[in-house]
Amino acid sequence: MLSDIEIAQAAKVDPITAVAERAGVPERYLELYGKNKAKVDYNLLRDQEHTPGKLILVTAINPTPAGEGKTTTTVGLADALSRLGKKTVVALREPSLGPVFGIKGGAAGGGYAQVVPMEDINLHFTGDFHAIGAANNLLAAMLDARIHNNNDLNIDPRRIVWKRVVDMNDRQLRHIVDGLGGKANGVPREDGFDITVASEVMAIFCLATSITDLKERLGRIVVGYTYDDKPVTAHDLHAEGAMAALLKDALKPNLVQTLEGTPAFVHGGPFANIAHGCNSVMATRMALALGDYAVTEAGFGADLGAEKFLDIKCRLTGLKPDAVVVVATARALKKNGGVSKDQLNEENLDALKAGLPNLLQHVENITTVYGLPCVVAINRFPSDTEAELALIEDECKKLGVNVCLSEVWAHGGEGGLDLAREVVRLCDQPSTLTYSYPTGASTREAIEAIATKIYHADGVTYTAQAEKDLKLLDANGFTNLPVCIAKTQYSFSDNPALLGAPRGFKITVRQVKVSAGAGFVVALTGNIMTMPGLGKNPAAFRIDVDESGKITGLF
Predict the structure, then answer these.
(1) What is the mean pLDDT of residues 503-520?
(2) CA–CA separation, 214 vs 241, rounded Å?
(3) Which of 35, 140, 280, 461 has the most neighbouring CB atoms within 10 Å?
(4) Catalytic: 70?
């Protein structure tokens, strides 16, 4: 059996110019990055009128080591829609080097449902993440320089909240002391690094609608506080212009293609467990402008990615999905039901029944809380039995939701035709998006609503630090913003060990901070970290390159 990278490398793909022509991108808006990838000038959205297509959001159950295949399903669904004669465009996030070299691997799909060139997408691609990291770190450098030179803004070095970033899992950088070595080297202080995808610059990059909007958002970033508790912004440091200059080319969406030649935008990539987990608004709108159907995804389970896509991205931009796909596997549901990984290939209806509430809660959240049409896509494995698949279908039908088998990993778009037909049917149904909390709700009200309506928690508790943070935000007018909850992806709760659909728990918020440029407040729960680390056996062990430049080991 061929690996993902071997399938991708063996594929015959079209020149990106042909893909752009098929998508309807005029040549003057195309900026080539070699033969197989290009950037599309965002002025295309301003210069040409388009009737937006239908938007399809792909999400999933809580992830498990058994795998769910959300990106694979997204790509395969787009190819299936193309096979049905629908003009379709994909919009995905860019992978971070952290998980590429860590445990999760890349994020270009899998099997015969991939976007290519897979190696480029999973590694440096067009340099967007490097530009985002540079802009983030320029702001950090300008902040420290201002303190060192005369500190005319009265910045309290103990109250700096802006960290430097690097796009790598590196636990050694979580907590550091810098500015050592004497007066010429700055003011000594405790500091730390985040991974690039957790940077507010990444969130701003993905929510910006123009260069002007980008600069305004960058200027609102809060980098620290004065000795009298007043926020200090990037605008106070005169940093937003230079930061935007670093990001001006990165802001243009990246155009690639699927293995079957469907146009795909891969652009931006915040993690959904620590950020809002959606690709750029620019890419989504471009996919909608160019396609009759735009297929996009949101990171991790629907309690994270889909909640943030709907409550943050849609609220701030006016976007609305016409249909939602919730991806699951029988294996992952059995894992939620308590089966160990080495026994997932065996039929176990009792464990499947015990794990099904995880899927059903995600589905009910989409249909009842948000009011959107939904279909369940079962990413089929050879070990799945007819009895297991029938049980899933029967339970979902009780909620009025259909189930479609997806075999896109093995068969590409051909394996997703049933799913594509159901999605087309759902897109033609009228629906109205409702949010889990009303616009203008207080920070506490928004957190409480997400915890009780989406997670089904009994309520929320706040640490002393979180209470202090909330008072500071209220005092400075950072109220009534959408909320981005940083939470483990493995559970509806903030405890990764509580699988399925747990009850009788509360969410503990330990820290609250404002991302004023992104336009939301971040609430950190549990032991969630903004800088991951590498494990004992990272994917980096298996990645190599030969004399010809051919890369192996990526997945």
Answers:
(1) 96
(2) 10
(3) 280
(4) yes
* Strands 402-406 vs 155-160: parallel, antiparallel or unpaired: unpaired
What's the Cα-to-Cα distance from 501 to each of 329, 403, 511, 525, rounded to whole Å? 16, 20, 25, 18
List, for residues 87-102, the tens digit of each pLDDT value. 999 999 999 999 899 8
Identify whether the C-beta of residue 323 lies closer than 8 Å to the C-beta of residue 101.
no
List 37, 39, 54, 70, catalytic entry: 70
Residues 6 or more apart whose Cβ sits within 8 Å of residue 219: 233, 234, 235, 239, 240, 517
Q: Which of 93, 215, 331, 487 is catalytic?
A: 93
354 a catalytic residue? no
Rounded to whole angstroms, how far apart are CA atoms 23 and 40? 11
Write down the pLDDT at residue 1. 76
Element (H, E) at 155: strand 155-160
Other Cβ atoms closer than 10 A to 99: 20
DSSP H helical ranges for 150-260: 200-207, 211-219, 240-247
Q: Would strands 54-60 and 176-178 be described as parallel, antiparallel, or unpaired?
A: unpaired
Contact 380, 407 (CB under 8 A): yes
Model confidence at 68, pLDDT cuts 50, 70, 90, reads confident
**Is 478 among the residues known to form the active site?**
no
Closest CA to 355 of 141, 463, 502: 502
Cα-Cα-Cα-Cα dihedral sign, residues 53, 431, 456, 357: negative
Cα R_g (the chain), whole angstroms? 23
Packed helices 417-427 and 70-83: angle between N→C axes, nearest 10 degrees: 80
Spell out the SS3 assignment of 376-394.
EEEECCCCCCHHHHHHHHH
285 labelled catalytic:
no
The pLDDT score that the predictor gives to residue 170 is 94
pLDDT band at 544 (very low <50, low <70, confident <90, very high): very high
Tokens of 483: 């909320």
What contacts 252, CB < 8 A, 6 or more positions away? 31, 39, 40, 41, 42, 282
Catalytic residue at 38?
no
Active-site annotation holds for 272? yes
State whether residue 71 is helix, strand or coil: helix
Residue with tokens 């902040």: 143
Catalytic residue of the set 101, 125, 205, 300: 300
Average pLDDT value for the chain: 94
Six token digits for residue 501: 């659909």
The H or E element containing residue 149 is: helix 128-149
Provide mean pLDDT across the span 18-33: 96
Active-site residue identified among 272, 298, 351, 523: 272
Catalytic residue among 59, 72, 196, 443, which? 72
- DSSP β-bridge partners for residue 511: 524
